[in-house]
Amino acid sequence: MNASAVGENEGAGPFEVTHRLVLSIAIPMTLGFLTTPLIGLTDTAVAGRLGSANALAGMAVGAVLFDLLLGSFNFLRASTTGLVAQAFGRGDRREEQAVYWRSLIIALCCGLAITLLSPFLLSAGLFLMAPSPDVAAVTSTYFLIRALAAPMALGNYALLGFVLGRGQGMTGLMLQAIINGVNIVLSIVLGLWWGWGIAGIAWGAVVGETTGMLAGLVLVVSRFDRRQRPARAEIFERERLKALFSLNRDIMIRTFVLIGAFAIMTRIGSSMGPLVLAANAVLMNIFLVAGYYLDGLANAAEQLVGRAFGANFRPAFDRAVKLTLFWSFGLGIVTTLLFLVFGTDIIGLLTTTESVRAEAAKYLPWAALTAVTGALAFQMDGVFIGATWSGAMRNMMLAAFAGYLLALALFVPLLGNHGLWLALNLFLAFRGLFLALRLPALAARQFAGQSRV
């Protein structure tokens, strides 16, 4: 379906979910999301060529802190996708626009708060991570510059959520390519060619987010049907806002716990010394690449499940779950095999420090395995976001996190960094399994009286 040609009632009512429809959303978004870990790969490569393990470790800590902050606000993208997809399935174009404006206003306010509070947030982050003084100095430079991009970065969450909710995969790809392409080019130019180092990497991110948001506003708002423009009173309708904040709260808790799990991993790795911390920073890029492969399919699940909910059509819901599950595990297995074969070459591209290369190679199989252990987790996340089952998602994340903490307590003392990566893989597996166990009862309640396909 051509996104720009969506008609007044197109998308509403019963519809058929096919492999082609799933992939028409998943492939563009996978390509778009793959440009995001390319940022991590580029930034790591630039920092790795500055000739200092402290530079690489400091940037890794700063990136984790900033991702912890922005990741905590991922509810802006997720809730927008789910609600827009459901309005799309109902054929309610007016509510689609209203959801977008509500989310954008919240995003800009939250982003401005992050920028203003960045010195205090940095202090809290350094206390949490407890890096060495040299590493902390690099982290401070990186973080305070990156924080300037917070309003634009969160605004882009709302933009992306809207286009994903309408199944406009190619538009999403275009926005991601603009944001991440500008970021990658400027990280290299400013960080290496102009000699700005870590500061240049951070400024590349600021300019990339700003360019993407301006382009996205022009692209998305220009397509709005003025006949369906919501009034200000509709945008700020109390019950709608209350429902949005309730949904956002649950997804925020879930996302904060998820990003917190990665922060704990970095903190434990930091306690094992700069070499292990740097090696894990390199390997986390491999995990992120696998994650963004799977995220494209999760986005397809979000849109198709949300659309099925809006249309109140169970056959489309069941088919969306089955097909996205099939493709998630298929891609996960292929990705794991590719990283097992070519992973050492990728590590070599990311850092010129021989000691970091050797250390990262020890733990490469664990990083490669995350594509398989995370396949169900990513796909189920997409299903639950599209269905706006935020309370169940929150609760299952908390249960998985408890299992993760137990795994850390058991395996890190016994296996060191191997135990740390084992715990991460178990955490991913717990997330998927716990959500899958809740799915049948929730679906039966939502589609009471409708037969399954």
UniProtKB/TrEMBL annotation:
Membrane topology of this protein: Multi-pass membrane protein
Signal peptide (UniProt feature, chain positions): none
Entry's transmembrane regions: 21-41, 53-78, 99-122, 142-165, 177-196, 202-222, 251-269, 275-294, 323-343, 363-384, 396-414, 420-437
Localisation: Membrane
Major localisation: membrane
Keyword Transmembrane helix: yes
Protein family per UniProt: Belongs to the multi antimicrobial extrusion (MATE) (TC 2.A.66.1) family.
PANTHER family per record: PROTEIN DETOXIFICATION 44, CHLOROPLASTIC, PROTEIN DETOXIFICATION 44, CHLOROPLASTIC-RELATED
Protein name: MATE family efflux transporter
Organism, scientific name: Shinella oryzae
